[in-house]
Write a structure and sequence with these properties.
- It is a single chain.
- This protein is of the alpha/beta class.
- The chain is built from 12 helices and 12 strands.
- The structure holds guanosine-5'-monophosphate and manganese (II) ion.
- The site of manganese (II) ion has 6 residues, from loops.
């Protein structure tokens, strides 16, 4: 069933024990939106936790609301109600999928055009730049006053999915959401400083290793991050975030892919980016079992890195 945000808020109010789920390899939008909604539910007196597979990535640990995050589905209560936020498909729940499905009441709040409406109750708006915009509306609909902590999380969410208000998905509503967060006390310099103007040495070295072996074929650019590179750089898995931007920003490139070898060595995760008119969610990721947005999508291919790259590139070559 598709519901409005006020209807979703009313539905949530009917439960006392709520788990809020983000997607695996959670980014700023998933982390910020889940933390803010969880803080708002707690403000209403609910028992609530934000379930983020693997926990908040290191570079987002400066955000408030860390105390409500559960890393490995290890909840201090048995949730009756589940709300997935920024989760494009059930498999994106990662190791928390079973926990989500075990909840008797399940809802989805998302902005991916590929979302299959996997909740009993769903609110999906593909035009929204970030789940954070919708989380803000949900908090308002719950009748909770926006605190500085919630606002900081939501500013990080909206900023993350728009490349700090840079990408084509940025709208007037995005700026309105950001303005509401700043008015409620979100510190723009501090938040953007942590996300965009600070990186660990290891993350910087990983970026260098990945870009040193960049591949180019007409409008397409790709690069790989191997397990050996992670080891050499001393980098974390979350350190691949935004490397793909350097590929799509190359003059003349219209589709870019970053392939990250997974720890098992038997699969690879792809970050796909495009410029208009290419739709990487619909035309590349979805046919191969992934999903995402028009200009930013992803997929995991269960094959060793080199083979997985061949699979994705063949699909990309058909599209360009
Ligand atoms: P990223 O490249 O930043 O990891 O992902 C880009 C977008 O695609 C995000 O909105 C993310 O949620 C979505 N996405 C990434 N990987 C997958 C996947 O394997 N399946 C689906 N359905 N969506 C994905
Ligand atoms: Mn998002």
């Amino acid at each position: 069933m598709n519901v409005t945000i006020p209807e979703l808020a009313g539905w949530l109010k009917g439960f006392d024990d709520i788990a809020v789920f983000g997607h695996r390899a959670p980014d700023g939008d998933a982390c910020g939106s889940c933390a803010a909604v969880t803080l708002a539910l707690r403000a209403l007196g609910k028992r609530a936790c934000a379930c983020l597979p693997g926990g908040m990535p290191e570079y987002l640990r400066f955000l408030p609301g860390q105390e409500c995050v559960v890393a490995d589905g290890d909840l201090p209560f048995a949730p009756r109600c589940a709300l997935a936020v920024d989760v494009s498909a059930p498999d994106m729940l990662g190791d928390d999928r079973a926990l989500f499905e075990a909840c008797e009441a399940r809802a989805v709040l998302d902005h991916h055009e590929s979302n299959p409406f996997f909740g009993q109750v769903n609110h999906v708006e593909p035009e929204r730049a970030a789940a954070g915009e919708m989380a803000l509306l949900l908090i308002k609909a719950l009748g909770v006053a926006l605190t500085k902590d919630m606002a900081s999380c939501l500013f990080a969410a909206v900023s993350s999915d728009t490349g700090n208000f840079n990408y084509s998905n940025t709208t007037a509503e995005t700026f309105e959401a950001a303005a509401a967060c700043v008015r409620a006390g979100a510190d723009v310099d501090r938040i953007t400083g942590y996300i965009y103007r600070t990186r660990t040495e290891a993350r910087t070295r990983l970026l260098g290793l990945a870009l040193a072996e960049l591949h180019r074929e007409g409008k397409v650019a790709w690069a790989c991050v191997t397990n050996a590179m992670f080891e050499r750089a001393g980098a974390l898995r979350c350190d691949t975030e935004r490397i793909v931007n350097y590929l799509i920003e190359i003059e003349g490139v219209e589709i870019a892919a970053l392939a990250t070898e997974q720890e098992d060595g038997a699969s690879a995760k792809f970050s796909l980016r495009s410029v208009a008119p290419y739709n990487v969610a619909r035309d590349v990721a979805q046919p191969l079992g992934g999903g995402g947005h028009e200009r930013a999508a992803g997929i995991t291919i269960h094959r060793p890195l080199a083979e997985a790259v061949d699979v994705v590139l063949s699909r990309v070559r058909e599209v360009v």
